[in-house]
Amino acid sequence: SAVISQKPSRDICQRGTSLTIQCQVDSQVTMMFWYRQQPGQSLTLIATANQGSEATYESGFVIDKFPISRPNLTFSTLTVSNMSPEDSSIYLCSATSGDLAQTQYFGPGTRLLVL
Amino acid sequence: GEDVEQSLFLSVREGDSSVINCTYTDSSSTYLYWYKQEPGAGLQLLTYIFSNMDMKQDQRLTVLLNKKDKHLSLRIADTQTGDSAIYFCADHNQAGTALIFGKGTTLSVSS
Question: Of A49, A93, B66, B78, which has the highest C-beta tally within 10 A?
């Protein structure tokens, strides 16, 4: 299994500012993902973080708003840019361990409140 | 596109069995997953089932899969107050990489 940590665990931000969330995995993983969980909702995939190339974004999410980096096989960052109150959510990082079941493990999440 | 549906709430008494149901649309799914989210926490993988199996048992958890009806269920035997959480059913997306989640079933266990 993979153990995933995220920083910060929570933050309160002013609208118009940006926040970068860090995700660290304790072992090399094949794939890393960023999800958003809006209050009382399920998880929605934002993008797949690709090592050494640009992230692959899902419909409704764009690079200018959610730039993602993945410099190596154990680390990724997600930036929430030019924040508005609608960006208040839990942001979760996940990684696939590469086993046959493609088991996906999640970080504890970053709870973001935008005022 | 793919879709995963779950009932939203389930309330049981401590010691009873809980059954959480899920339906999915992607008939090519290879694995299906159950995750648990406790208040203020991230997602914990509970169990998964390979699509060629009808049933998988893991201690108090039993997963049943009806591939013909695209129906998945999670049974928790002897439900405890510590089982109170949101349970998510998940399937892979069309690319077979990331996960698509149901809306989650909130399980409330009363003593």
Answer: A93
User: Which candidate from B45, B96, B101 shows the least CB-CB separation from A43?
Assistant: B101
CB-based contact B45 A103, cutoff 8 Å:
yes
Task: Give the C-alpha separation, A33 to A44, whole Å.
Answer: 11
CA distance A103 to A105: 7
Helix (H, G, I), strand (E, B) or coil at B55: strand
DSSP letter (8 states) at residue A58: P
Contact present, B22 and B71 (Cβ < 8 Å): yes
**Taking CB atoms and an 8 Å limit, are B101 and A96 in contact across chains?**
no
Q: For the segment A21-51, what is each residue's pLDDT rounded down to a tens digit?
A: 999 999 988 899 999 999 888 899 999 998 8
Give the distance, in angstroms, between the CA of residue A61 and the centroid of all CA atoms in the same chain: 12
**For residue A34, what is the nearest residue in chain B, using CA coordinates?**
B98
Nearest in space to B1 (alpha carbons), one of B97, B101, B102, B93 = B93
More confident residue, B41 or A24: A24
* Residue B32: alpha-carbon gap to chain centroid: 9
Residue A101, both tokens? 């079941």
SS3 A93: strand
What is the DSSP pairing of strand A110-114 with strand A89-96?
Answer: antiparallel
